[in-house]
Every structure is written in structure tokens, then in C-alpha cells.
Amino acid sequence: MTELVANLGLGLSVAFTWYNVLFCFAGVLLGTLVGVLPGIGPTATIALLLPVTLNYDPSSALIMLAGVYYGAQYGGSTTAILLNLPGESSSAVTAIDGYRMGRLGRAGPALAAAALSSFFAGTVATFLLAVFAPPLAVAALRFGPADYFSLMVLGLVCAIALAHGSVLKAVGMVLVGLLFGLVGADLFSGMQRFTFGQIELADKINFVSVAIGIFGIAEILRNLENEKAREAMVTKITNLFPSKDDLKRIVAPAIRGTALGSVLGVLPGGGAILAAFASYTVEKRISKTPEIFGQGAIEGVAAPEAANNAGAQTSFIPTLTLGIPANPVMALMLGAMLIQGIVPGPRVMTNEPELFWGVIASMWIGNGLLVLLNLPLIGLWVRLLTIPYYMLFPAILCFACIGIYAINSNAFDLYELTLFGVLGYVLVRLGCEPAPLLLGFVLGPLMEENLRRALIISRGDPMVFVSRPISLGLLITALLVLIIVLLPGIARRREAVFQEDGD
Amino acid sequence: MKKLLGAALGALLIGAGAASAQDYPTRQITMVIPFAAGGPTDTVGRLLAESMGRTLGQQVLVENVAGAGGTVGAARVATSPPDGYTIFLYHIGMATTATLYRNLPYDPLTAFSYIGLATEVPMTIIARPDFPAETLPELIDYVKANTATVTYANAGIGAASHLCGMLFMDAIDTQLTTVPYQGTGPAMTDLLGGQVDFMCDQTTNTTSQIQAGTVKAYATTSPERLEALPDLPTAAEGGLPELTFGVWHGLYAAAGTPEPIINELSDALKVALQDPTVIERFAALATTPSSQEDATPAALEAKLVSEIELWRPLIVAAGQFAD
Amino acid sequence: MTINRQDLAVGAIFIVIALFFALNTFFGLFQPALPIGTPQRMGPGFFPILLAGLLTVVGIAVILKSVRSQPLTLNDVPWRGLAVILPVPVMFGLTIRGLGLVPTTFLTAFISAFASRRMRLPLALALAAGLTAFCTAVFHYGLRIPTPLFGYWIPGLS
Questions:
Q1: Are strands B177-180 and A192-193 parallel, antiparallel or unpaired?
Q2: What does the pLDDT look like over A238-281, one tens digit per residue?
Q3: Within a domain: B229
Q4: In which domain, by residue range, is B184 found?
Q5: Contacts of C144 in chain B (CB under 8 A)
Q6: Residues of the domain holding A105
Q7: Subunit contact A51:B177, Cβ cutoff 8 A
């Protein structure tokens, strides 16, 4: 314990120097901005910043890059809420209720709920990171391919539970997402699947193209359907900040979201992507009023935002303690260390204590700066909605195109944007929801990969999924969630039949 | 629109002829790296770009064009104007993709001008921390006796760990169960967690784990022992002289780039490879810069030709292609 | 009994997508057919076929259910928006390397502005100019993306 205090003291002494606070502020400010701009996200930004960081001290460089990462989590929810434009899979969940709240004139409270629960989650998760990093990292290693497969199954069941309309259509959308997720080179045989000989497709369809296509482009087209309706809606903005009742409603979801996000974020195989929608499912199921989810429930904003921010913070655990990247952003952080001449790995903590603890301590400062930065900005963001839409969407398109191109300099990603724009628009117009498709798309490759990998390691024995306790536990949970999802569905259908009979 | 295209085409022709070495470079140079930012090749590239930019008096900007084992980036550079403003850092993949991909949109031997070799990153053979074998001969004996249960992890087809695995299995004449991963990170995770048995990967990824004792290490594939890991024997010492290779990196430009420009770039590369910062940072990657003789167009061309021939039979015998 | 044509269409789209992937797996259009393998040792075609099969079942179920549900009221199809917006990313992809960041951004903003009926030429020009300036500042000078301001199609400026 005294050691921890000493370590944190060291960290704070590094993070609280004026230039590191400045770097931290630069990072979170930049992160917020790129999070708000559709298309360009933290991955592209950090990649672009790598050469700049060469000139700075390693701690300062990493403090700034980390700031960009979690700052972008804050900013990403802003466009999800205001424009139905999620930049990452986690903010796709925020978009569901956040965007509805915006349409009801409650964009302000939605943004505030997102910022406050993110702040809470960030602070708590940073504390966990400081206290439990090494043992958590070791525990996370127990997760094998079979366990990841079961986790993905649970994730998909949650994706279906997200739907507030037809469960059947949601299942269909998940499957469509899973299928498109398979496009690209097969990891196991090296064969190209559904690429039509285009080597640009070999590394899978670009996630950002899919997200902006099915959410952003589809949303632009829907707004063009009836240009008058959109104008009418923006005049209705009421209060900017959440009421007392709102605040009361977000406390418990934020705590639960933080817990779930912290746990899933530690898993090095991309468990964090499940955090946001797993927490949304939890809130929807334990809520006394599940019917308001999808109609602008503030809990549906607070919980996933808390979860994804907590996950963002704890995903540093495997990166900093083991030198293993949990996601592409973490891979870049390791790259930044390499360029600085620091070899990432289990010895960073002992060899570079100032760097390790400095970065962790800076996260507290960063989260504090973010909430100070974001609360006053809410007024400005909400005013964005008063800009006529016919001036807003050319801007969205410009940012999206440049942002997507900046990731890989691959023109093909833009053709994908058009393709998914059409698909998204048609399906959304016909009453399907885009979020399950996006989640299927993200989870599909992970699920198949881990399934096949688990079977290779077990020599084709499928019992591996039930003989491993973690995997078994996850599968049982998935089954329970599935039953709970389907039960109200059956109940509702009956109700509908009754109503039809009564007419 | 037609007018615009016409103007554009005209511009293309003028642009191609206008490049001359006297005033080269007059604007920023783009270094294409065919892998995502943050990886070992990206790090090598950024360190070189920094130093070369200082020598050339113009910024050298890194552009990551990732995809299909690096061939997307290569295809891009192959069709770039040969004016010296687009250069290309690619590793051993330039030689292996020639066989791994049977429908490349370019010919690796004719589509590029050579600038020079940059570095050769050695490989290490490592195993999960509780693996029974202690030395390379023990590992070979154990693997041969337990072919039904031992698993070898790699980071996907065409990755350095995949190539090393092929070479290893060929050298000990035994076929093993291979478990592929999407990149080195996940593979290392499962190795540390004991889900898979052993792998062979670049020192960039393994050195810190070996030094921390979180994995067992058996050998390095370098011709001599490594400075960073003096206790680790070479594969030749352990009885596998065939397993001597490294992930070599070369610098290219589009075919047809004027010779004076190539020479200027090659000279800048030579300077970069003697830059103390580059040497120091390369050491952190457990690698060393190529010698001055190797940082020449002729050396790179010879290397590429011989490596294509080295890997072709191995890949064909393994029967795994990436298309 | 009314048939909900929207659900009918959704079911049909699901089935078309499923068939597209299934046929590609079995017969291979523009690429080799994918081996299915066995559940113990799955080939690259196993998962796609499994998913395509499930999606077909879901598609059929959606069609069967369409018989009893009420359709949503829909707005008109924004043909103008579709015709203008959808080609814009493709144009961006085709011209970004040749023309460079500045001209391509200008074209993207200018063309897409006309997706709205309210757009007038002076406003579109002003909007495109403003966005080009903003994007150049943010992406080129701020984030330093490696795309040149003017591409190799424009010799004097590149």
C-alpha cells in the first residue's frame, strides 16, 4: 500500500509538471476535436501524431497520445448524439437513445449525461488501473480462444437485445453484419473471400466506412426525404443541462457501466468493444420501464458511455504491463514507445516507473480537463443543430471522406462508403436498425477466428467450449440473456394479437 | 470534365519529364510504408525518414498504406510517378509475396528501382513459460516426439513468424499444427497465457519478454549472438544452421526513377544508417543498420533476387497461398 | 389480410444477401470456390455457409410474418439526394490522389450541396470555399495528413 502511494506520488509529480499538464490538455482537446469530426478517429490521429512525438520526452508524448485516445471517446459521443454519426462501435450504442433525445430537444442533457458518466468511469477505471494493473493483466491471460468465442456469442446475443423494434429483423441485421465482416483474406487458409480479386479488400472492409455509411449517409438521405420536418425539429431545444431527476436516473447506470467496462477492457483480445452494448442490454433488462429504451432514455446514454470510457482506460492494462496491444490504438501507443527507444513489455513498469506512473496519473488530470472542457462546450454543440441541415451535410461528407481516406490512403474505403450508404438507407427506411449490423460486422471475424482457433488447439473437440469454466459461464449467461430477450417478445406479440382481435 | 481530364493527362506527361536531379528535392518526399502505423517496419521507416529528411533538406513524410501483407502499398508505389518523390520501405515480404500471391498486379522484379538495404531484424524462437524443453535440441526432440499435441503460433500468412515456422519445420523435417493469429500481439498473448506452445518472431516483439523471463527462449536466427541477448545461442549453435535468416528491409522507388535521384536517395540512406540516433533506436529494436556496402541499389537487387529463389520452393511445398 | 410490403422487401433483401454469399462460397464468382471443411476442421467456407443459411431462414420468417403486420408510412424517396450524394465518395476516391486535397474537398462540398433543393449557386460556392479552407487548416496544417494539397495532375502547384 505504501508502495502504491509512493508510486502514485511519483506519477503525480511527473504528470503535474506544467508542460505535462499542457501536453495532456493538448491531447484531450485534440481528441475531443477529432472525436467530433466524423470519419477521423483516434487511430488515424495518433498515427498522424507519431512523427511529432519524436521530438518530445517519452512521458510527455505518451501522456498526449493517451489524452487523444480517451478524449476521442468523449468527442465521439457528441456526433453520435447530435448527428447519429458514431465514429466507433461503442458510440453506435450511444447513438440509439442519444440521437432520439436530441430529436426530442434534449441534446443538452444527453451530452451532459455522456460527459458526466464518462468522467466518473474514467476516474474510477484509472484508479483500478493504478491499483490492480499487474494482477489483472495476468488474470486476463487465462482467457483462451474458446473463452473469447463464448464471449463473442454473448456479445451477439446482446446485439440482438439492443433492438427496440422487431427482434427478427435485428437477428437478420446481425447476420448481414457478420457476413460482411468476413470479407477479406481468410486468416487460416490465406484464401480471399468475397473480394472479387481486389487486393484492397484483402484486409477486410473498413469499419469506419461501414459505420458512416449505414449511419451517416443513411441519415443524410433520410433528412433529405422531407426537408421541412428537419427544420421544425431544431426549434424545440429546451434546457441545456440535465434536471435533478435526470441526474438521479444516471447514477446507477453509470456505476454499472463502469464496472462492466472496466472488466471487459482488461481483456487483450478486444473485449472492450462489447462493453458499451453489454451495459446497454443490462440497463434495458433491469429497467422498470424498458419500453422507453430506444425512445430517448437517458440511462441508455449514461451506461454505454461509462462502459466505453472505463474500457478505454483499462485497456491500457495489458498494454502497459505486458506490452500487448488490446486494440489498434494501443498498438500505436506501443509504436510510439518503440520510436522513443523504449521497448514495450513487462519490464516497462520497473525500468520506466516515471513513464508508467506518469501516464496513469495523467489520466486523472485528463479526465478532469475533459469534463471542464466538455460541459461548457455543450451549448456550442447544441447550437450546431440550429445550422440549416442543407449546409451541415456537405460538411459531414467532406469530413467523412477526408477522415476515411486519411486512415489508410485507400480510395477503396470510399467506394465502400457509398455501398454501405445505399444498403443502410434502404434497410433503415424499411424499418431495420443499423446498430446490430455494425456490431455483427465488428464481432463476426473475432467470433469465427476464435472458434476455428479453439478447435485447432483442441484437435477438433467441441467439448472445449463447455469444459473450460470461463467459456461455460459465458455460454450460460448468453443463453439466459437470449431467453430474457425472447420472452418479452413473445409477450408483446400476444398483446399485439389481442389488440388486433379487439379492433 | 473532359477538359479537366485532358489537362490532367497533359500535366502527368509534363510532370514526369520535368524531374531532374539538379534541383531534387524541391518539395516533401513521401515514404510509403505498407503496414499499419506502430509496427516494427513502421518504426524503422519513421526513424529513417527523420534522418533522411535532414540530409535531403526536405521533409520525408510517412504514409501508411496497409493491406494484403504489404502488396497494396507496393502496388500503389509501382504506379506512382517515377520522380523520386515517392519512396517505399518494404521488408522480406517483397520476396515472399512474389510466390505467396499468384495474382500480384505488379512484378516485384521490374516494378521498382532499388535504393538500398536498411536493416535485417533477427528472429528468436520462444515458448510458453512452462514448456518442458530447455534448449534448442531438447525443443526439437520434444516437438518431433509430440507432433500430435504441440502447437506453433504465427501472426498470419506471410508474417515473419509464418516464414520462420516454415523454415523451422523444413529444417527439422516435421509438420506441426499451426495456429494463426491476426498479428503478433494476440499470438504473444496466447503464448504468455499458455494457450499455444511456441513461436518464432522478430526480436522487436520478443526481446523484452525474453529479458523479463515471461517466455522461454531457445535460439536466435542471426549468424552471431545478439548484443541485447548475449546468453541466447544462435540456431546454428543449437544444431540448425539452416535456420539463419532475418527480416531484411529495403528501400525502393518506382521503376524508371532517374539514376541521379536514386543515388541521392541512396546516399541519404547511407547517412541515416550512420546517424547515432538511428543506431541507438535500432538497438532498442534489437537490430543494427545495414553496412554501407549493403545500402546500395546493387546489394538490394541481389538480395531480392536471391530471396525470391530461396522462398519459392518452401512456399510451394507448404502449399499455402494468400489468394 | 394485408401484406406489409416493407417487411416483404426486408425478407427479400436478406435472402438476396444470403444467396449472394452462399453462391460465392459454393461456386466462386470472380474467385475460387471456398472449401467448406468439417465442423472439426472448418474451411474458409464453413462460417459463411452457416451464416448464409441462418440469414435465409430469418429472411423467410420475416416474409411469413409480413402477412400480418402494419406497414410504416413512408416519405417520398429523395431521388435527387440519392443521385447527388451517393456518387460523391466515389468521385472523392477517384480524384484525391490526382487532384490533391484542396480541389477534391472543394468538389466534394460543392457537388454534395446540390443534394438539397434549397441550395443556390452562390451559397454552394461560398460553402465549398469555406469548407475547403476549414478542412485544409484542420487536416493539412493541423493533423498533417500525408495527402498533398495539390496532386500530380496539377503540375505547377504540386
A1: unpaired
A2: 677 888 888 889 899 999 999 999 988 887 666 667 888 889 88
A3: no
A4: 122-220
A5: 61
A6: 2-502
A7: no
